[in-house]
Prior knowledge:
It contains one helix and ten strands, in the order ββββββαββββ. It is mostly beta strands. The strands form two sheets. Strands 1, 2, 3, 6, 7, 8, 9 and 10 form an eight-stranded antiparallel sheet that branches. The chain has a two-stranded antiparallel sheet with strand order 4-5. The protein is globular.
Amino acid sequence: MAGRDFGGEMRLRLADGTNLTMRGAFTLGPSGVSVEAVTNQDHSVSRQATLKPWTAELTLEDSGTDVNLLMRAPRQDVYITEDFTGVSHVFMNAFFSGDAAVDRASGEWTGLTVNGDAYQRLGG
Length: 124
């Protein structure tokens, strides 16, 4: 599938097999580099690349997972699978960062970002 297909059911799995329920979509940071334009004194333009982790910003359902343990968990491979599109995203040697917050009225757990040393897209 994939191509111009998006959405559908998405799953997040940790290396130990734990599944976390995703609420809504995730935002993918699929490039390991940020590039900035730099203007030189002769008005020519160069670019400066800054390395950055591969990322996925997540919204999860508060299913009782210990937020503190997840934020302190050792590095691990994290898998996000898009069932509808057949695309999988693998973040290698990844960890969670951010300022986790749980909205008790909606059950949404926000402020989480997966950060990986490497990234691989499979399928689609």
